[in-house]
Amino acid sequence: MVRRRVVVTGQGVVTPIGLHLTDFWNSLLEGKSGIGPVTVFDTANIPTKIGAQVTGFDPLEYMSKKEAQKVAQFTQFALAAARQAVEQSRLVIDERNAGRVGVIVGSGAGGLDVIEENYRKLTELGPKRVSPYFVSSMMINSAPGEISIAIGAKGPSFAVVTACATGSNAIGEALRTIQYGTADVVVAGGAEANFSQLDLASFANIHALSRRNEEPQKASRPFDTDRDGFVIGGGAGVLVLEELEHALNRGATILAEVAGYGCTTDAYHITAPDPSGSGPAEAINIALQDGGLTPQEIDYVNAHGTSTPFNDRMEINAIQKVFGEHAPRLAISSIKSMTGHLMGGAGAVELIATVQSMIHSKVPPTLNCDNPEAPELNFVPHVYQEREVRAAISNSFGFGGHNVCLAVRKWEGV
Prior knowledge:
This protein has 13 helices and 14 strands. By secondary structure, it is of the alpha/beta class. A ten-stranded mixed beta sheet has the order 5-4-6-7-1-8-14-13-9-10, with helices on both faces. Strand 13 and strand 14 form a beta hairpin. It is globular.
C-alpha cells in the first residue's frame, strides 16, 4: 500500500505570549517572555511563585457564555485554537465530508480547575452545589468532543494523555489516522489550563520548578548550566492535518509536510528520564526513518528543553547520539524559555513554532542560555537566527517515560 502524504493547512494557538498565531510568532522572534509572578491564586505558602499564565483570553470570542460556563478552561483554550486553525485552513465541513474529518486533542491534567472548584463546593457548601456539568467538563476527552460538536466533525475523535508528550502524540496519531485512510483531515493538538495551586505546590515539592522568583523572566534557562527547574504554564496548540491530494484538490494553502513520527518509552522511572537518552534517541531515529530523512538533512531541532538539569542533559545526550558530527551544525532551541512549559499543550505549540520557522526561515531563540552545558552546540542563544529550515524535528518527553519525535519538511510543492 502506498502511504498517503500528510500536510499542515491550519494552525491555532493560545499561549502566554500570544493568543493568536501572528502575535505568538512575533513574540518568539522578539524574545518576549510570558513568565511572571502568579496572580490567579495566593502563592504565600508555595516556594515557587512564578509561572507562565495565559492572560487576556476571552472565551466569548469563540463560544457563547452558556457554552463557556459548561466547560473547563483547557477545553476553552483547545476550542479557541481549533477554531483558529480551521479558519486558517479554510476547511468547509458539511454532510458530504463530515465523516472523513477527525479530532484528536489531548491534555495532561484536563479539568483540574473544575475538580478543585467542585471539591471546594462539596466540602464547604454541600453536594447539591456540585455542578451538574462537573463530570463532562473535567473529562480530558471533553476537548475533542466539544471541538467535534463545534465544527461538525464526525470522523474518529479521541483524546491522548501522555503528560508533556501529549500534544505531539496526538499529532502523531493524527498522522497515522490519515496515512492509513481512516480520515482525510484531522484536527489535532493539545491543551492545558492555567495551572492551579495543586499543580504549583506539587511540582514545587518535588523540586522540579525554578525558584528564581525575583527574576521570573530569567527563570526558564534551557541548556544553561545555571538552570534550576522548569516554569509551569498553560495554553493550547491545534493544527489541521490533511491528506495531500485532499488539500491540493480544494486549493488549500499548504504550510508544511508532517513526514515522520517516532514514539518510545524509557521504562526507567515514572518522573525521571533515563540519563543516557537512549529512549529519546530511538524516538528520533524512528521519526527520521519513518519520514525518509537522514540526520544530515535536519536543519533545526525544536527541543523539549524544559530547563531542568536532568531533562536537558538527557536531551543533549540523545541529540549527540543521533546526529554525531552533524550535531554542531544544527540549530537547537527551546521556546519554553519564553512560553514556560505548557505541559499537555507544549508539543503542539512547539510543532507550530517549528512550522513557522520553515515558512519564515527564522529560528526562534533560547532565552537565558548564557553558559550552555554543551558549548559546541548551537542553542540559538538570546536572539533568533536567520536560517533556511528544510527539515526539522520537534521533541517531546513526558512523565511516565514517554518519548515522541515529529519530523517535518518544508513545503516546496509537489
